[in-house]
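Dear colleague,

Thank you for sharing your sequence with our group. We've completed the structure prediction you requested, and as agreed, I am returning the results in plain text so they can be pasted directly into your records. Please verify that the sequence below matches your submission; if there's any discrepancy, let me know and we will rerun it promptly.
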Amino acid sequence: MVEMKVLKNHQEWLDSRKRIGGSDAAAVIGLNPWMDNQKLWRIKTGREKQEDISDKPCVAYGTEAEKYIRALFALDYPQYKVEYVENNLWLNSDYPFAHASLDGYLTDQQGRKGIWECKTTEIMGAAQRHKWEDGIPDNYYCQLLHYFMVTEFDFAVLHAQMKYQRGEDCTTVRKTYHIERSEVLEDIEYLKQKEAAFWEMVVNDREPNLMLPAI
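Please find the predicted structure tokens below.
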């Protein structure tokens, strides 16, 4: 059974995120460029505290910009009904080790349900630009797979705003990436198995072998 809980406030939402979340998924399989699976294990077993990055300028910008980008998306893509509830937490009884918090959720003209994910990034060089030109970066793709697993939704839309800063001049470009659940079933199953195995190690207090993060 899939359910969405709406928590009373941001602190209760933070306190409820004790399972594997979407932003954790890539670390489980060694595809998070900022965190390896052993560090994630130490956090989930209480050996290490989760770093609070909410005050970092890029994070604060993304948090504040999200509501405006979501509103612009709704204007640009009227074929979707766009919904959002603050402090949402999605749970699936088949996967007690996982939760999801969505930036939004969609209903298309056929009544199908979709994930809406917002990303903001400042493009600092060619390598970073190519990651977005060639598709969704691996760590964000894993996040969408995790959300597919928890919500059982039919499709996902990742809407990214890329900012190019040149002195005082700022250019922004928004790109939309669409994924059908039916096209990524094998990847969802793979991630599900890896997350379940990782969570078993958390429960049994057994450290996993190191999987080095992507470079």
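Summary note from our side: The domain at 2-203 is CATH 3.90.320.10 (Lambda Exonuclease; Chain A).

Kind regards,
the structure core
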